[in-house]
Write a structure and sequence with these properties.
- It contains 4 helices and 4 strands.
- A 4-stranded antiparallel beta sheet has the order 2-1-4-3, with helices on both faces.
- The chain is of the alpha+beta class.
- The longest helix is centred in the middle third of the chain and has 16 residues.
Length: 122
Amino acid sequence: MSSSSAAEKVRASHILIKHQGSRRKASWKDPEGHAISNTTREAAVSQLKVLRDDIVSGKAKFGDVASRYSDCSSAKRGGDLGTFGRGQMQKPFEDATYSLRVGEISGIVDTDSGVHIIMRTG
């Protein structure tokens, strides 16, 4: 089987919070990157932990939170990244996604893009 076979693909949604250390300091919410440039990694992690707690406790739905707070353009799809295989995402993101069961939400995942929480959806 090749690494692009359907059996080895996953589907996931995520919420990305960018910060000063992010490789690209702009997003659909902050096109000039002013807020992102002033956000520490620690502040981004704190915000993401609160959002994750709201989702896990049932106070909020993952897709609604992603649509409102994620710095990724996937926010318009409720954080849905679609399906992907190995080698298509940054390694920490890929490893975290493949380690989750369908419906499970990750802890904080650091990548060059920022900090994420990921929900495996398929």
